[in-house]
Specification:
Blueprint (H helix, E strand, L loop, with lengths): L3 E16 L4 E17 L3 E5 L6 H8 L7 E6 L2 E2 L5 H7 L3 E4 L13 H12 L4 H14 L16 H12 L6 E5 L7 H18 L2 E5 L3 H7 L2 E6 L2 E7 H6 L4 H8 L40 H5 L5 E4 L2 E3 L18
Helix pairs in contact: 3-4, 3-5, 4-5, 5-6
GO molecular function: ATP binding; ATP hydrolysis activity
Organism: Paenibacillus rhizosphaerae
Protein name: Oligopeptide/dipeptide ABC transporter ATP-binding protein
């Protein structure tokens, strides 16, 4: 088994709520609340969940684009949140991000060659001619016409702009990349092209990905393992195919039951969740999912379940995991 490249240990990220003339802190938005995961070298770890569950915040905390309120994030065994500015600047070469908006993440006043070449100017001592040569190589690697390097971002399509962002992310040959909703703003046909490009680059460059997305089918296609988040908590982690075939947490089962099927006449056991997602500023007691869970019992509202390994490679935070002894039964919903 590959070694752990990323180790997230009990990470919390709270955003203070200020109120009144004195701007006092009256509470916190618990965007990420005690999350622990590992990402193995060379794998793609998919992260899914509803909007506002803390996926993107976790990705940014892992890269230290935002500081953690508490907890540790280790890259190759070193805690990046305890690094000095100089150490962190060096670490930036090995950790990069692909943003969701392929246009907003690119400086509209920069030529494409300057956007892609900027990391090389900041982190290396390459000459202008060497940078130009490397930019041409990178554009060709991601499937762009290098002769268009003297154009501006608005002269490219959405898919091409995302390829520019990918070329910038891999310019320094990083080990780890956070793909934060990297395909959600693209057309379906373009999504598949970008996903295939990321998988190709992973094989050729030995990259490790944290792939954050809403599209469960996309996550299934690209990920080796999947983590499911709900209201700042990790509720289930497992190998992709096993998790999709046999979800243990009711929230995971509900998400998977909403995936459109190619055979509409085939009967499905659809789980329709009631109510809205609670506020992360005032999460429910006990299990955070219990107000919407069709299997909730009294214990669920009183005791918060820990993320526990219940099967080899399978972790779930649920008092009554689906299909386990003494657990929930999907057939009861028919």
């Amino acid at each position: 088994m590959a070694k752990n490249l990323i180790e997230v240990e009990h990470v919390k990220k709270y955003f203070p709520i200020h109120k009144g003339l004195l701007n006092r802190v009256v509470g916190n938005v618990k965007a990420v609340d005690d999350v622990s995961i590992t990402i193995r070298e060379g794998e793609t770890f998919g992260l899914v969940g509803e909007s506002g569950c803390g996926k993107s915040t976790l990705g940014r905390v892992i890269l230290r684009l935002q500081s953690a309120t508490s907890g540790a994030v280790k890259f190759n065994g070193r805690d990046i949140h305890s690094m000095s500015s100089k150490e962190l600047n060096k670490m930036r070469e090995e950790m990069q991000i692909i943003f969701q908006d392929p246009f907003g993440s690119l400086n509209p006043r920069f030529l494409v060659k300057d956007i892609i070449g900027e990391p090389l100017k900041v982190h290396t001592k390459m000459s202008s001619s060497q940078i130009e040569k490397r930019v041409i190589e990178l554009m060709e690697l991601v499937g762009l016409d290098a002769s268009r390097r003297n154009r501006y971002p608005h002269e490219f399509s959405g898919g091409q702009r995302q390829r520019i962002g990918i070329a910038r992310a891999i310019a320094l040959n990083p080990k780890f990349i956070v793909a934060d909703e990297a395909v959600s703003a693209l057309d379906v046909s373009v999504q598949s092209q970008v996903i295939n490009l990321l998988m190709k680059l992973q094989r050729e460059m030995g990259l490790t990905f944290l792939f954050i997305a809403h599209g469960l089918n996309v996550v299934r296609h690209i990920s080796d393992r999947v983590g499911v988040m709900y209201l700042g908590k990790m509720v289930e982690v497992g190998e992709t195919e096993t998790l999709y075939a046999n979800p243990l947490h009711p929230y995971t089962a509900a998400l998977l039951s909403a995936i459109p099927k190619p055979t509409p006449t085939k009967k499905r056991n659809r789980i329709v969740l009631q109510g809205d997602v609670p506020s992360p500023a005032n999460p429910p007691s006990g299990c955070r999912f219990h107000p919407r869970c069709p299997f909730a019992q009294e214990k669920c509202s009183q005791v918060e379940p820990a993320l526990t390994e219940v099967l080899p490679g399978r972790q779930v935070a649920c008092h009554f995991p689906i299909g386990m002894e003494g657990g929930s039964d999907l057939n009861s919903l028919k």
